[in-house]
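User: I'm designing a mutation panel for Transposase and want to avoid disrupting the core. Could you give me a predicted structure to guide residue selection? Please restate the sequence first so the numbering is unambiguous.

Assistant: Good idea. Sequence first, for numbering, then the predicted structure tokens:
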Amino acid sequence: MSVTTLKKQKIKESLKKTKEKRRNQVPKVYQLKISYSNLNKDQKQWLEKVFLEAKWLYNYTVADIENRLNPQTEKLKQVEIKTPNGYEKREITCLSSQMKQGILDRIKKNLSNLSKAKQKGIKVGKLKFKSDYKNIPLKQNGITFKVLKDKNRVKIQGLKKPFRVLGLHQIPENSDIAKAELIKKPDGYYIYLTCYIDKNQIKKEKIKKPIAIDFGIKHQLTLSNGIKIKYSIEETKRLKRLQKKLTKQKKGSKNYFKTRYKIQREHQKIYNRRKDIQNKIFSLLKRYEHVLIQDEAIKQWHSGLFGKQIQNTGIGGIISRLKNNLETLISVDRYEATTKICSNCGNRKEDITLSDRTYRCENCGLVIDRDLNSTINILKIGLSKVETTTIKNLPTDCGKVTPVERKASARILESNPYIRVSYASVKQEAPNFS
Ligand SMILES: [Zn+2]
């Protein structure tokens, strides 16, 4: 057998092995942020330049796809680009040939998508030039990039010093790192890492105990095990200051664009914080086999007094994710008087207002956190509607948090500095017969 056939055979075998392995794995993308404060001058310059070169290469190729979309272009050290002064040459020094290959592969893929759409009768245009290239493919682990997990760093081909990154701790042990992308966003640079994770490692035991949620203003979420989750991401002072500054600057001036860019970055930062909180809360709730909510009139809240507060909490986002993603979500009619009824004896109390944070039952002596009382009512009403008998009964430990639940909430929620977790109280007093 010749050397090349032997080589081909080896590649074929290894591909087959990978395919078999992937059957028991699921892909997951992890977001790593490049720590900007730890960058040296070379790294900062390289990051700026590499995205510029990616744009040049992309536009150069798209300008003449027929002649330029080929392996020859991957080897180019110089491209020609159109400027207001005519064509000028630009050196390619940061993009490695693997990165160039990745960019060309993407163009090929976009073209084939366009032609598929065309075959279906959809009207399609041509590939457009880009004014900014924000996403560079890093194809091969070990070649274009290397993860140095114990050092919290990622090395990228062509750059001597590895980048210090945040977020490597999220990646489980024994996962296969497949590919990565280098991303430019208004708030900084990121590496998106695609990993393959063992299915068994993902499939954690679900918590069998059903859980009900009350969405409130003061504590955004109260769970029927007594966990109260509080958070709020408000517009930062910096954002307000920048917005004020912008109104005083000359439209279209250099400083105007500078400020506008800073505002974008600040918005992105706030958005990311909010998103992360939503993700964390959702992943905690996902652990439960049955989740119950009352179909709140969020829209009414929005227009009312609490509009701004609700917007800052993103409660709407959490509810829609629950509705879209949980097969076992049970929802209770919004008109059920869950705040007025005693969850212990069923006595109804009419004179409870929004400022009463504690529910005191004159009939049975229950003194309970107001929102926790509501969640237990939601649980009771919801479970009574369920067809399957397995969860029909109210769990005996409802209102209490189990060690498993406490551990899960600590692991998932407490890694985010904007989330505060506390526990609601319940006690039994002698009934008041006065
Ligand atoms: Zn009562």
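For picking mutation sites, this is relevant: The first strand starts at residue 25 and ends at 34. The two ends are 100 Å apart (CA to CA).
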